[in-house]
């Protein structure tokens, strides 16, 4: 009899232990305790560098608040001494920040410290970040054009779709010959755009057209 009760007690203890393990595993999965990498980061920079790599953000230019988070615009110094210009969407959660989507570009002639003569040869460069709705990245504030204006006389940049609807870009001066610009677009505007850089008096410094749906597109085409 004693042995039977002892066996039953052992079985009950084993069953209780199994139940506790199942509950712990379920709650851990439910609340994200099992995936430490999926946890939010305390800062925007840490959230970006958790995905992109340590030291990825060299110089923060602007942090634009958007729905459910912000878009961070920054410079990343490369190993050869050059720079890339990046835009990254980071989501805000109750317990921190998580990277959502973004991209960057760079070229040897796109960097701070250009002389007026050098900058006047370059005008501007714009990169398109597509919308992410329906993709593995989920919702985001994109599509968006962002880029760098180098020509010292560029004071306004406008993006126009095929219907003639225009949106003016936000320009953030970094130096006289190195200015960040960005403009958020609507998915309903399509993928064909005309981008124009103006000087203060309204004269066109450069105008380009771009079809972002064309996979063979290798760059902007001058039409001025």
From TrEMBL:
Top-level taxon of the source organism: Bacteria
Protein name: DUF4309 domain-containing protein
